[in-house]
Amino acid sequence: MTDLAALLTVQELDNTAGALRHRLATLPERRALEEATASVAALGAELAGREAPQRELEREQRRLEGEAEVLRAKADSENRRLYSGAVTAIRELQAIQEEISSLQRRTAQLDEAVLELMLKIEPLVDSVAELRARLAAAEAAADAATVALAEAEVAVNAELQSTLAQRATAAADVPADALARYQAARPQLAPSTVVRLVGSRCEGCPLQMPSVEVDRIRHLESGLADCDECGRLVLH
Ligand SMILES: [Zn+2]
User: Fold this and answer.
1) So what CATH class is 17-172?
2) 197 alpha carbon to ligand 1 midpoint, in Å?
3) Closest-CA residue to 118 (of 70, 175, 173, 58)
């Protein structure tokens, strides 16, 4: 392989590296991970929205239960006073009995209110549990997608590193000035910055070159001409 022909190898490897970088940037695994992450976020927000009313009702339930507890304790203490023998006046005993009845009525009302709250909370608990299960599954899927993306990236990166190493080896065979001309022209002319002269035609052009031009190119010492038509570097 001549020095200049190695430039075609460099170009081929540059094209391969470009394709691998594009593949890295557009891995389907990355899209899958983005979707899984979005799903986790959406379910998390939905869960927070459902947990809030459940917690609110549970707070209310605890408050009413606490209140009923206080009333029950008060009724117990009145009851003990009623039978303690310390109170003997009929009117006072009647008053205590009325107070106990009143406390029991209020306690029963509170118990009923607590029951109603529990009936409201029950379906919320079920729906929150169902949502938590869906969130856990989405989180597991996101974890799996993270692993899949990392594996895909490792595989493509390994291929890219190997391509870049081969490119460095090939580039070492190319004269420095030719490599510099190639690299300067590549941004405009990739993926075919360097082409061959085939017969009297530049590979980058549809038309044949005038024979005077072909002669001129063939006799250039550098072995690398600029095509007047397309601007590509022509190997001859
Ligand atoms: Zn050309």
Assistant:
1) mainly alpha
2) 9
3) 58
